[in-house]
Each structure stands twice: as C-alpha cells, then as structure tokens.
C-alpha cells in the first residue's frame, strides 16, 4: 500500500464513481480501477460495492477512509512544518466564506494579502455556513469566515466584522409583515445562517410564511426581488453594494429586531493543528481590519 493508492481511494470515495474520480485525477479509468482492485487484494476485503450508477463504500471502506484522511492530513502537516522552517511566507492557504462576506468584505483583504505574500497559493471557496464549518472541521479548509455563534472545542473563533440583517422588498412594498405572509421568501438553501435567523424570528413572532424559494446567488435573489417575485433577507452592506453598482435598483430594506439583526462575522480555524506561516500571516492581517477599512 502506498500513499498514491490511498489518495486514489479517497477521491473514489468522495466522488462515488470510478469514472468521475479518474476525470478528477486526470487518470485513465482502467488505471483507477486496477489501483482499487490492488488495494482490495492487499487488504483482503471489498472497499466498494459496484453498481450501474457508480460505487458505494462498504463498512471496511469507511474504516479505511477514516484512517486515510488522518494519514494524508498528517502528511500535509509534515510538509507544512518542514516548509515553515524558511523565513519566507510560502505554501498554500485554503479559505472559505459565505457569498455575502466574500462579495463585500474580502476583496480588499485578499488583495492586500496576495500582494504582501505573492508566494502563497491562496484560494477561496464560497458555501453555506454549515458547509464551511464542516470543511474546516474536516481539514478541507484552513479557515473560514462564518456568522456567529460557532461553538466547538476544536475550533478557534476570531470576531472580525459586525453586520446588520435586513428584510429586502421592492421599493413600492412597505409592510414587511404582510409581505412575509403573502409573498415567497427568496433564500439560500438549508445551511445558510441568515435563513436560519429569519426562520427563528418568524417562528417566535408567530408569522407563517407563504413559502421559501431557494437560489444559489445573492445577485439572483436581489434581481428577482426587484422584479416582484418575492422578498428576501441579506446584510445591509451587501444591499448597499448592490445599489451602488445598480443605482436604478428599486429595493427597500426593512429592519429586524436587534436581537436577530445584529450578526458578528468571525474567522474560524482549527487550533489543534500545525499553523503554517501562511495562515498565521493571514490571521494577523484580518485582526487589523480597522486599519484596512
């Protein structure tokens, strides 16, 4: 068994398909198939059930996957530790953020970081708050910007920005309560922290919404609100930026009760792993946000 076999096995498990794994790895499919078969022969067990739609990991495969992720993570930590001996800030930095924070807050931060540390390979993934926390916890991201509250013994939380949530409607619509009961609410999918806050407020206020329509882009949501499709929830900062670039946008923000409206955006990262110079430099930069605004 070698490390490359484990990496191939991990990708097949993630993709649940040998053909998709081969595409992702840029390998010939027969090569991936043979490596999995060799691994199964070496371990004297079946790692995947094969079916017409792909593969399904077995119980033994799940056990191997758990150890594989630990082994590959330890290898990555070893490489980072050795590279960290140099005084130059290099390596990779994988970050995550919700779409609204990425659009409004991160551009100047990432620009300054990449200009200051050009030898760092910095990447950014946008996803829901729930997915971002999971990715940091599972070592897929070095850190992520997510709305509070985040409470986990393995995660460190650094408060960075304060945001205000608002309900957004067409400019001609002024009664938010009746709108919430009469019009569809345009939101991101389950896992969005802002949607969860809105649903909690609706429940506590005894407001029964008409229905939720899910979208994957804040620009699409705001565009549909302007077209009269429904109402939505976002931060005041993202709405102001949208109106800045679309001055003709006929959108109106309705305030929420302070206990639901006020949100702190924090940067989370695992505190039980080796901190690379790239991550340490980024954390020092975001702690100086008052100087960046």
TrEMBL record:
Pfam family, one: LysR_substrate
Gene3D superfamilies (alphabetical): 3.40.190.290, Winged helix-like DNA-binding domain superfamily/Winged helix DNA-binding domain
Source domain of life: Bacteria
Transmembrane helix as UniProt keyword: no
Annotated InterPro entries: LysR_HTH_N, LysR_subst-bd, WH-like_DNA-bd_sf, WH_DNA-bd_sf
Record-annotated HTH lysR-type domain positions: 1-58
Keywords for the protein's UniProt record, in alphabetical order: DNA-binding, Transcription, Transcription regulation
Protein name: LysR family transcriptional regulator
């Amino acid at each position: 068994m070698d490390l490359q076999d484990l990496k191939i096995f991990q990708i097949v498990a993630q993709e649940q398909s040998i053909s998709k794994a081969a595409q992702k790895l840029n390998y010939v499919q027969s090569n991936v198939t043979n490596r999995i078969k060799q691994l199964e022969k070496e371990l004297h067990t079946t790692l995947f059930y094969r079916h017409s739609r792909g593969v399904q990991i077995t119980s033994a495969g799940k056990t191997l996957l758990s150890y594989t992720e630990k082994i590959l993570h330890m290898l990555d930590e070893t490489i980072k530790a050795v590279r960290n001996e140099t005084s130059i800030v290099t390596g990779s930095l994988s970050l995550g953020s919700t779409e609204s924070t990425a659009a409004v807050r991160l551009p100047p931060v990432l620009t300054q970081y990449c200009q200051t540390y050009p030898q760092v390979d910095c990447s950014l993934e946008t996803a829901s708050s729930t997915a971002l926390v999971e990715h940091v916890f599972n070592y897929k991201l070095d850190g992520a910007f997510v709305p509070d509250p985040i409470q986990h013994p393995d995660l460190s939380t650094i408060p960075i920005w304060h945001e205000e949530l608002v309900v957004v409607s067409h400019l001609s619509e002024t009664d938010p309560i009746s709108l919430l009961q009469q019009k569809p609410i345009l939101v991101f999918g389950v896992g969005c922290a802002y949607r969860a806050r809105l649903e909690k407020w609706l429940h506590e206020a005894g407001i029964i919404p008409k229905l939720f329509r899910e979208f994957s882009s804040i620009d699409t949501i705001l565009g549909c609100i302007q077209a009269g499709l429904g109402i939505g929830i976002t931060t005041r900062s993202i709405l102001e930026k949208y109106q800045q670039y679309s001055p003709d946008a006929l959108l109106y923000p309705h305030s929420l009760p302070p206990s639901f409206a006020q949100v702190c955006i924090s940067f989370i990262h695992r505190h039980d792993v080796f901190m690379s110079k790239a991550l340490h430099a980024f954390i020092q930069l975001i702690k100086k946000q008052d100087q960046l605004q």
